[in-house]
Every structure is written in C-alpha cells, then in structure tokens.
Design goal:
single chain; Jelly Rolls; 6-stranded antiparallel β-sheet; 4-stranded antiparallel β-sheet
Length: 213
C-alpha cells in the first residue's frame, strides 16, 4: 500500500484497487516492528477499563460514550473521581510530540484512547464527536491488522481500508467530518480470494479536545 493525497493505492492483488476518501492519509510502517512491541508493552502496563464490550484506556480526557462529551482539564480534576482520566503517560506524549513535529497534528494531541479488539470484535460506523475534538484524528495500529470500513456520506457505499500493524491512519477534512468509519465484528477479513484471520489488535487514537465555544 502506498500513500497519496486523499487517495490510498493498494498493490496489485489486494481486494481494493483504489480508495477515494478525501482527507484520508495512510502511512505504512510509521512504527517499525520493534517500536510496535515496545509501545504495546508500555500500554499493557496501564489500567484497562471494561466499561464497553472491548477493553479501553483513556488518557488526558475521558470520553463519555453516553453523553458524547469529554471530561474537563485533567490538571484541575479531582483524582478521587473515577470518571477522570489520568494525564498522558510518557509513551503517549512521545508519539503525540512526533505527530506534532511531523506536522500531522497541530496543536499537539491532548487526548488518547486505546482500544483493544479481540477477533470477532468491532466498532459501529461513526464520526468522532465533532463538538468534542479537533480537525485531525490519528490512529496507530498494533498487534494484528484489520480492515476499516469507510461509509460514503451520500450513497452509503462502503470502502474497505486495510490497516497494517505499525501503520498510521490520519483523518482530516471529509474523512474526519463526513465519512463514517467502523470495523465489522468478524474474525477474518477478505484479502483477494482468501480470508485472513484476525488476531488481537490494539489501536491508539490521538485527538485534540476543543475548548468551550
């Protein structure tokens, strides 16, 4: 898979020949295998929440799925309140600083959510909360790869985008605000004429929280 402006081109033999999702950027190998293993080990040392069917970790600001809102600035939060999220750990700050340094996210991300997907688990198609988060959403894939489906805002057609371990998927513009993205709850993904079994996948999503309007 190669990167292009607003379009992802896949090598011959992949199921999808081209993907036209405006504002979508894919960077293969953003983290090398050793960096992936190290990052995953650091994440494993954190505390997982089981509030959803999948395990999650929140840093910087906790996202309330029911209210579709985020908590206040963690620096002024009451540490005794379980709803508050801990500050970004060193591993998250390091990646957030790299995203800013490479001009991918400005200002630097201040909210991180880690999602764990076991084979058979997914996430329904959605657009990340528009009043909550800024114009760039960036996600690193670790462990197993998967196919993320992007749904056209007009005609509802779906485009499958394979996300490989170590890759970075960046959503801006229409990919951020108009196209819905999700992961089908299945244990394998199509690749050409065969199906590829999924393993355990961990995604790390970086976002900036918008202040009060």
């Amino acid at each position: 898979m190669t990167e292009g402006p607003g379009q992802l081109s896949f090598d011959a033999g992949d199921e999808v020949a081209s993907v036209a999702v405006p504002g979508l950027r894919y960077i293969a190998g953003w983290l090398d295998p050793e960096a992936c293993r190290e990052l995953l080990a650091r994440i494993e040392a954190g505390t997982w929440s089981t509030e959803l069917r999948r395990r999650v970790q929140h840093y910087g600001h906790r996202y309330d799925y029911g209210r579709r809102s985020v908590t206040a600035d963690p620096r002024s939060a009451d540490p005794r309140t379980s709803a508050d999220a801990p500050p970004l750990p060193s591993w998250a700050l390091r990646q957030a600083e790299r995203l800013a340094r490479e001009g991918i996210m400005e200002p630097r991300a201040d909210q991180v959510i880690v999602n764990e997907y076991e084979p058979g688990q997914g996430i329904s198609a959605h657009v990340d909360c528009v009043p909550c988060f800024g114009p760039v959403v960036a996600a690193i894939s670790l462990g197993s790869g998967c196919v993320m489906d992007f749904t056209h805002p007009g005609d509802g057609t779906k485009t499958g985008v394979p996300l490989a371990p170590g890759s970075l998927c960046v959503m801006t513009g229409a990919a951020r605000y108009d196209w819905r993205h999700g992961i089908a709850a299945r244990k394998s993904d199509p690749e050409g004429a065969v199906r590829v079994p999924r393993g355990r996948r961990v995604s790390v999503t970086f976002r900036t929280v918008l202040g009060p309007g």
